[in-house]
């Protein structure tokens, strides 16, 4: 069994350990429709040797009324087992997405009880830029015994967010770009109006990343959150458009030791679609 050194591993570490027993690499790439990219086809064309395609875009609960809802424990168990990921395997996740979807996969797995999971810092882009090996095709793996997952405790519902408006106990932090959070007009990504949950603060997910897609240093991350008005000692719930880029902030918080922050699962897609929810638009007061 391989024990990962941290929840963020470098491309050099992966290159040195890629053949280690019990180490599985998962491609969690997923793209917004406007990107006009096919993550599955791109994986088949070129991926890190031995990687398996998580198909993150289909890993949600279709029975839920929440858009792109958190997958159920049974769905997670079935998906990993079908990819040949055993209960004791170490997992390294990467992506090649502008919205850094490896963080969504990391949060889904770890919030559901899976340990020994890490993100590849810089993802496929950094791996490729360094001239490291790639392979094509769709590797098949023998199914594995299913692991056991739990219902996530760090996922918030619309009802939770409404209750927080009445009795504010949790800071709400929106990971979308400022023009979508504080602007008016139509949201260019998900449709519906621009705007935010009343009282929400804003830290675009890109602010926790370097230009090459790697995560910024712990000191820089702390400064970014504090600069956005966040008290790191108090409860935090992250939100975004559909629960993907908020996970980038949650991973960044994890890197600086804040492990109790939660995700508003439905995020702005759900909130903005309900005419009964209060919405704020324009500059912050």
The name of the CATH topology of the largest domain is: Oxidized Rhodanese, domain 1
- Average per-residue pLDDT, rounded, comes to 96
Order of helices and strands: EHEHEHEHEHEHEHEHEHEH
DSSP summary: helix tally: 10
Rg, alpha carbons? 18 Å
CATH class bucket of the largest domain? Alpha Beta
Instruction: State the secondary-structure class.
Output: alpha/beta
Strand content: 5-15%
For the record, the count of structural domains works out to: 2
Description:
With 285 residues, the protein is of the alpha/beta class. It folds into two domains: 8-129, 3-Layer(aba) Sandwich (Oxidized Rhodanese, domain 1); 155-273, Oxidized Rhodanese, domain 1, CATH 3.40.250.10. It is 29% helix and 12% strand. The chain is built from ten helices and ten strands. The strands form two sheets. Strands 1-5-4-2-3 form a five-stranded parallel sheet. A five-stranded parallel sheet has the order 6-10-9-7-8. α4 (102-111) crosses α9 (245-255). The protein starts with 7 loop residues before the first strand and ends in a 12-residue tail after the last helix. The mean pLDDT is 96.
Descriptors:
single chain, 285 residues, alpha/beta, Oxidized Rhodanese, domain 1, 2 domains, 5-stranded parallel beta sheet, 10 strands, 12% strand
């Amino acid at each position: 069994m391989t024990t990962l050194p941290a929840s963020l591993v470098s491309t050099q570490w992966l290159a040195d350990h890629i053949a280690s027993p019990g180490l599985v690499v998962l491609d969690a790439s997923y793209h917004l429709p406007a990107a006009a990219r096919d993550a599955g086809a791109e994986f088949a064309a070129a991926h890190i040797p031995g990687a398996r395609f998580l198909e993150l875009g289909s890993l949600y609960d279709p029975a839920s009324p929440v858009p792109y809802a958190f997958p159920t424990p049974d769905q997670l168990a079935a998906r990993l087992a079908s990819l040949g990921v055993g209960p004791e395997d170490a997992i390294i996740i990467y992506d090649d997405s502008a919205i850094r979807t490896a963080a969504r996969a990391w949060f889904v797995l770890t919030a559901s009880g899976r340990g020994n999971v890490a993100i590849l810092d810089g993802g496929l882009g950094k791996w490729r830029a360094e001239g490291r090996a790639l392979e094509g095709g769709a590797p098949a793996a023998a199914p594995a015994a299913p692991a056991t997952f739990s219902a996530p405790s760090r996922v918030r519902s619309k009802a939770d967010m409404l209750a927080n408006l009445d009795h504010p106990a949790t800071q709400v932090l929106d990971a979308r770009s400022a023009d979508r959070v504080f602007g008016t007009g139509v949201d260019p990504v998900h449709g519906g109006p621009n705007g935010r949950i009343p009282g929400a603060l804003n830290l675009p997910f890109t602010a926790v990343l370097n230009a090459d897609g790697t995560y910024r240093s712990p000191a820089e991350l702390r400064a970014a959150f504090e600069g956005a008005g966040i008290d790191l000692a108090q409860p935090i719930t992250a939100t975004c458009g559909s629960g993907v880029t908020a996970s980038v902030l949650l991973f960044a918080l994890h890197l600086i030791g804040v492990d109790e922050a939660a995700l508003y699962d439905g995020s702005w897609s759900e909130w903005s679609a309900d005419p009964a929810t209060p919405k704020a638009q324009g500059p912050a007061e």
